[in-house]
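Worked Example 4.2. Consider the chain below.
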Amino acid sequence: MNKEKINKLICIVGMCGAGKSEVSEYLMKKKKFGYIRFGQITLDKIKEMGEAPSEKLEREIREGFRRDHGMAAFAVLNMPKIDRLLKQGDLIADGLYSWEEYLELKKRYGDFLTVLAVFAPPEIRYSRLVSRSAKHKNDPEKKYRSFTMDEAISRDQAEIENSHKAGPIAMADFTVINTGPIEKLHQQIDKIYKEIYGG
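Applying the procedure from the previous section yields the following C-alpha cells:
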C-alpha cells in the first residue's frame, strides 16, 4: 500500500468483556473514526449457515478459518475491507486476535498501525459477560456478547491457548485500564488520542 496515502489504523485488542466495543464506540462517535470488527466474518458465517450464535460454534468457525488460512486468518480475510475503509479516513479495527495477525498487520501498515489494549481483570470481565444478556437485548450486530460463567472461562482459555491472543496485548502501543466509571475510560482514551495525533 502507498504509504503517502494511508490513514491511521488503530487496532483494539483485549480479552472478552474487557471493553473493546466501548473504546471503539467512543472513538467512532467522538473522534469520527471508521469501523471494522475482525470477528464479524465469524458471525457472517454463522448467519450463512442459518445457525444461532454460541460460544462452541463460534470457536469451531474461528479455528476453522485459521486451519484454512493460517493463524493470521482474520487479518488476511479483513485486509481488503481495511484497505478500502482506510482510503476514506482513519479506522478502528475492533478485536485483533492472534500474534500472527499482529505481525501481518504490522508488515502491511508499519508505523500507520497503532495497537490499543483494553484491560480488565477476569472477575470484572466475567461479571460483565454474564450480565450483558439483559443490558443488550437489542444488539443485532452482536457487539456485546453475553456468556455463562463457564463459557466465559472457556473462551479465555481458547483465546490464549488456540488464538495466541496474549502477544498483541503484551506488544500494544497503549493500554487502558477499564475497571471504573465509563468517564475514566473516556479520559484515558482522550489522553491516548492526543499522544497519537498531538495537541
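The chain has one domain: 21-194. The longest strand covers residues 113-119. Compare this with Example 4.1 before moving on.
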